[in-house]
Amino acid sequence: MQDEDAAKFGEALSSLPGPVLAYCRTGTRSATLWSLHSAATMSMEDILAATSAAGHDMTGIARRVASGGSTPTETGGARFDVVIVGGGASGVSVAASLQTREYGLSIAIIDPADTHYYQPGWTMVVGGVFNAESTANPMGALIPGGVTWIKSAVASFEPEKDAVVLDGCRVVKYDRLVVCPGLKLDWDGVEGLTDTLGRNGVTSNYRYDLAPYTWELVQSLNKGRALFTQPPMPIKCAGAPQKALYLSGDAWTRRGVIDDIEIEFCNAVGVLFGVKDYVPALERYIDKYGAQLNFFHNLVAIDGEAKKSLV
Ligand SMILES: Cc1cc2nc3c(=O)[nH]c(=O)nc-3n(C[C@H](O)[C@H](O)[C@H](O)COP(=O)(O)OP(=O)(O)OC[C@H]3O[C@@H](n4cnc5c(N)ncnc54)[C@H](O)[C@@H]3O)c2cc1C
């Protein structure tokens, strides 16, 4: 967050009819912008008191303002042997593994999320095996005992100073840094997709709220055409799009409707799976469910109302 951002925030505050509602996930970024903007006209003591009353610790801003505009990273609010960015499956398992190998390491996981999602479980949700709720757990319950959870987002990295800067300009120092913030999904990469996701028979297993809808669609389809797609790398789990196909094929076989359902699998790449040894077994499932396999077919646009897609 740069001083220019704070200046723009100030312009918005003075030009908009009040009261102005600033919104971000936790309020920290809004409070940071407000504090940086207000530093020109208010005492830091008053800024800290106002933000503290709203539940935000802006002491990092005070250090930034005192140092003339950039966050000083020579010292930090906290220091750990290992800092892990992200408390997903990777972050939590790295922390647990390190702790087991070397007792006494000081480890911190930095993650602003309240909820940890066990994403591979969504495959089981779309197959009707798991409830979606069983894949969502409070983050605090999964952080290994003895590991410090810093509930904040990393805003920038300062590798030369062995430091990360959090939202609100707090500084955390480390001896070793592990970065695992996951992948950000690009829903807008497919034209028309966001308008129709969750309705018109269009779904994705890559979202917690949509995985149950996939299972609903599988259960309600008795005849017709089911199109499964797999985008090019990088994607989360190269197997996930196919697992949806195989589990759906299994459900339709059990219900005795498989012969009335035309399955098509459009894969953006030219191979069923990157690990060659698995391919023959997967091909057997493609054959078993009579699926038509289209390599180098990437979904680029979708018209949900018309039930048409462009690959
Ligand atoms: C349907 C589906 C099926 C899958 N099946 C499999 C499977 O069978 N096998 C397999 O190995 N993998 C599978 N995957 C891939 C699976 O998602 C990953 O293996 C794993 O869940 C990814 O964990 P992660 O910790 O890297 O990322 P995530 O679980 O996405 O966690 C990233 C965390 O980083 C945090 N974060 C993001 N930005 C910041 C920041 N700036 N500061 C601090 N924290 C931040 C987020 O809040 C989040 O909690 C599947 C994925 C899906 C969607």
Description of the molecule:
- By secondary structure, this protein is an alpha/beta fold.
- The chain folds into three domains: 3-66, no CATH class; 78-179, 3-Layer(bba) Sandwich (FAD/NAD(P)-binding domain); 187-310, 3-Layer(bba) Sandwich (FAD/NAD(P)-binding domain), CATH 3.50.50.
- Helices cover 34% and strands 20% of the residues.
- It has eleven helices and 13 strands.
- It has helices at residues 3-15, 28-38, 44-53, 59-66, 89-101, 121-126, 139-142, 193-196, 211-220, 240-255, 279-288; strands spanning 78-85, 107-110, 115-117, 136-138, 148-150, 154-158, 163-166, 171-179, 224-230, 261-267, 292-295, 301-303, 308-310.
- The strands form four sheets. A six-stranded mixed beta sheet has the order 5-2-1-8-7-6, with helices on one face.
- Strand 9, helix 10 and strand 10 (261-267) form a beta-alpha-beta unit.
- Helix 1 crosses helix 2 (28-38).
- The model has no long low-confidence stretch (mean pLDDT 94).
- Bound molecules: flavin-adenine dinucleotide.
- Flavin-adenine dinucleotide (FAD) is lined by residues 85-91, 110-113, 119-120, 122-123, 153-154, 180-182, 205-206, 236-237, 239-240.
- Flavin-adenine dinucleotide is lined by residues 85-91, 110-113, 119-120, 122-123, 153-154, 180-182, 205-206, 236-237, 239-240.
Give the averaged pLDDT, no decimals: 94
Tally of distinct domains? 3
CATH fold label of the largest domain:
FAD/NAD(P)-binding domain
Write the element-wise H/E pattern from the N-terminal end onward. Answer: HHHHEHEEHEHEEEEHHEHEHEEE
Low-pLDDT segments, ≥5 res: none
Counting helices, strands and paired strands, the structural category is alpha/beta
Our count of helices gives: 11
Bound molecules: flavin-adenine dinucleotide
Termini separation comes to: 39 Å
CATH class of the largest domain: Alpha Beta
Tally the beta strands.
13
User: What is the CATH architecture assignment of the largest domain?
Assistant: 3-Layer(bba) Sandwich
**Biggest sheet: strands side by side, in what order?**
5-2-1-8-7-6
